[in-house]
Amino acid sequence: MNWDDLKVFLAVARAESLSGAGRGLKVDPATVGRRIGRLEEELGAPLFAKSPQGYALTDAGQRLMGHAERAEQAMGAAVEELAGQAGALSGQIRIGAPDGCANYLLPQVCARIVQDNPDLEVQIVALPRVFNLSKREADMAIGVSPPNAGRLTVQKITDYKLHLAAHRDYLAQHPPIQSIDDLLGHPMIGYIPDMIFDKELDYLSESGVSRVSLASNSVSVQFNWVRQGSGIGIVHDFAIPSTTGLQKLLEDRISLTRSFYLIRHADDRRLDRMNRFAQSLAEGLRAEVARLEALC
């Protein structure tokens, strides 16, 4: 058994398809299938069961998975050691994040890290859902609540604030908002209720709002509605400086605090490169949240 075969095995296990694994490995699916067949023949056991849903690990595949992941970690550690740990960061690191963080914080934070490490390639995957790190959808993820399952490590990065807000042009054309009851006559902007993927994102129900006139699963879409004067919504304080004309409302009545968490594979704690990047990322996010919130 060689490391190249194990890499193919891991790719299929995580993608749950030959085509998905092939895209990641940059080889055609037929080649992936032949490599898996060769590995199964060598081990004398089927590693995957094919179904309409894709390739699922058999019992033998499940047992091999742990060994393959440990081999992957060992190879990564060896590469780091041979490359030297004290130099600049290099290679590719993919971060998964909810789109609020991905749009208004990560671009400038990651750009500064790459500026200091020119051989580093950072990829930001902005999706309004929880990332599956066990399938290597990302090397690390930003979450709004700590996970309670899986072989993961969790580090709290920072708290952040959210407030009710509207554009000044909208407010000039509508009756003043002096109490929560005054919100009843206004179009409210928020999440699609059945697409809220984390209870920490259920902002409006916590604020006593029961009906949403304009809804999206994307924070950026919600923010753009508020920015263009379509109604009233809960916005991140750190997003407000990215535009002009927004005004916070009922600050003494509705003020929410949430937190960002850095979520990583437990085994990646052994990798100096990942530790150094994680430290730079967390420090950068803390500083950027503080800077932007001071401006709004």
TrEMBL record:
One GO BP: DNA-templated transcription
CDD domains the record matches: PBP2_LTTR_substrate (cd05466)
User: Matching InterPro entries, A to Z?
Assistant: LysR-type_TF_proteobact-type, LysR_HTH_N, LysR_subst-bd, WH-like_DNA-bd_sf, WH_DNA-bd_sf
Sample GO molecular function, one term: sequence-specific DNA binding
HTH lysR-type domain mapped to chain residues: 1-58
PROSITE patterns listed in its UniProt record: HTH_LYSR (PS50931)
- Keyword Disulfide bond assigned to the entry: answer is no
User: Which keywords accompany this UniProt record?
Assistant: DNA-binding, Transcription, Transcription regulation
The UniProt similarity line reads: Belongs to the LysR transcriptional regulatory family.
Q: What is this protein called?
A: LysR family transcriptional regulator
Q: Native species of this protein? A: Thalassobius vesicularis
Per the UniProt record, the lineage of the source organism begins with:
Bacteria, Pseudomonadati, Pseudomonadota, Alphaproteobacteria, Rhodobacterales
